[in-house]
Amino acid sequence: MLTWIDWLMIAGYFALLGGVVVFTMMRQKIQSGEDLFLGGRSVGWLAIGASIFAANIGSEHLIGLAGSGAAAGLSQAHWELHAWVLVMMSWVFLPFYYKSGVSTMPEFLERRFGARARWILSLVSLAAYVLTKISVTVFAGALFFEVMMPEVQLTIGGTTITSFWIGAIATVILAGVYSSIGGLSAVVYTDLVQTGIILAGTLSVTAFALYHLGNSGVALADGSTAQGMLDGWAVLKQTIKSTGNVEQFGLWHSLTHKTFPWLGVAIASATIGVWYWCTDQFIIQRTLAAKNLTNARRGAIWGGALKLCPVFLFLVPGMLGFALWQNNVKIGGVEFQSLMYKMVDGAKVIDGDKVFPTLVQNLLPVGFRGLVVAGMIAALMSSLASLFNSVSTLFTVDVYQKLKPDTPQRKLVTIGRTTTVVMTALGLLWLPIMKAIAGGGLYQYIQAVQSFLAPPIVAVFVMGLAWKRMNLRGAVWGLSLGFILGMCKLGANIIWGGADGFAFIQDFYFSGILLAVSILIVVVASLTAPAPDAAHTTGLTFAGLDPEFKKENRASWNWIDVLGSTVVVGCVVAAYAYFWTWLD
Questions:
Q1: pTM of the model
Q2: What is the CB-side half-sphere exposure of residue 581 using CA atoms within 13 A?
Q3: CA angle 116, 122, 127 (to 5 degrees)
Q4: Are 209 and 363 in contact (CB under 8 A)?
Q5: DSSP readout, 463-474?
Q6: d(Cα 390, Cα 272) in Å, to the nearest integer?
Q7: How far is Cα 563 from Cα 571, in angstroms, rounded to an integer?
Q8: How many beta carbons lie within 10 A of that of residue 355, not counting itself?
């Protein structure tokens, strides 16, 4: 139960959020589509990096990633150590995007190939956002409210509306309002504040979980008794080893592992990383809002530094929750095995998707619970606001404006805001379906679906930059056939049961195969049509770089950018080095 102090913390968060939105609206009047969708291209690197992080850290991380940590240890860490991909984006992809002056990723494909490529990517992206990102984010956030605030209910005409629906509807509407009114500027600067709240809230969960596990009185291997926060880590490792879960909780798994074979994971996680961080409108839009290329690059590098945190903010608490459950630790007279469980074949097993909210509810003292709930709301609202703004941009710029190119700027602003309202409604309508089909493993579900969507998009973008000979036919056939093959695999999983049923190819192996097939399609299709003209390659491919482009790009960075990139990549290497053998 939340106390009045916790509710005061939550109220303070909303007051701060409202103040930031009002400030950004007073600071910048929205007069055009560029103001609404790109913040007038006036955002600094600090806000860009924070917005990249906050947009990425949605409620599915707090629910799904912590649940994955409890069920499968570090198996999902490969997707959360993608800081190196952000560094690559800042140096390899971003100069082309920023120099071309585009507003969306489909628009970049039109510059490079032609209008048909833009249409395909626009429609695929819009469908993917509604069916995966918006629905999953809303569902995970609503589940958190259901566990954290069961007492919040509303009865209308004899019908009781639970905290699940109250939390979902309230946050979706609030996020939709401030993203539609304040535009990307409001989203980015609220993300700057929300990043601090997210970090403080989730770090407190890790700290208190280590404290309680370390003071649980569990006997250690050397004969001593755990009695401190540092012993919490030793208890975790000992618990994993004693239960025979060393491979399950390790970083790498065998080639024949049903869910996370190491080769499939290595290829699929990198492919998804390049798609999400280097080509997806949801992320790239923040960098395009920068004052200049220097701020865009530094924002991406700063976002990469923040991206180093999720393993320790979400996966580790999930694993600590598993240890608390396995040792049946009692806190305040409550046994953890009586919480966060579900029944499978008549037996109680840990319910991964309830781990994080249960830790918050039972480990944290008064005040800290309010802080974490505020952080949860911050994660939910920042992701939703970013999604709404990105979807609004894609529809307005890549669909509506393409159909009606003479539309006045003021009307584009109205269309963009209307699109946000529609997306809000669609997200809520999809929620009952999401609630019915989700049953744990939420984060794994996301990565599996994305592994079917990402390969053809990655193939087209990477080949488009690297191979000057690639043309419109290659892009169209690569995107279209690749998407159809990916959806066939998704359909097979739905009909025949995925990894436990008719998985003719393991999901992550399929991702690598689809990437190779998509590249082959791009090459063959491109060679059956004439080479593109200079207008589609100059300044849009590595081979088409002109002296002016090279000069501007070189002037946009110095030793600070190099040092920051080196530190971020070095931290990723250090994390892999430690967790590679951490259970040996």
A1: 0.87
A2: 2
A3: 130
A4: yes
A5: HHHH-TT--HHH
A6: 19
A7: 12
A8: 32
Q: Are 204 and 364 in contact (CB under 8 A)?
A: yes
Nearest Cα to Cα of residue 342 among 70, 1, 58, 148: 70
User: What pLDDT does 325 receive?
Assistant: 86
User: DSSP character for 225?
Assistant: B
**37: pLDDT confidence band, cut at 50, 70 and 90?**
low
CA atoms of 380 and 387, how far apart (whole Å): 11
Q: Which residue has the tokens 């909303």?
A: 14
Tokens of 118: 């833009």
Give dist(CA 89, CA 93) in Å, integer. Answer: 5
Query: What is the rounded CA–CA span in Å between residue 542 and residue 467?
Result: 8
Are 455 and 483 in contact by the 8 Å Cβ rule? The answer is no
The DSSP call for residue 328 is T
Place of tokens 């055009």: 32
Q: Is 272 helix (H, G, I), strand (E, B) or coil?
A: helix
Encode pLDDT of 443-479 as tens digits: 556 666 778 889 999 999 999 999 999 999 999 999 9
End-to-end CA distance of the chain: 40
Mean pLDDT of 559-580: 96
From CA 119, how far away is CA 142, in angstroms rounded? Answer: 33
Tell me the backbone φ, ψ of residue 291, rounded to 5 degrees.
-65, -40
CA distances, 427 to each of 66, 132, 392 (Å):
23, 10, 14
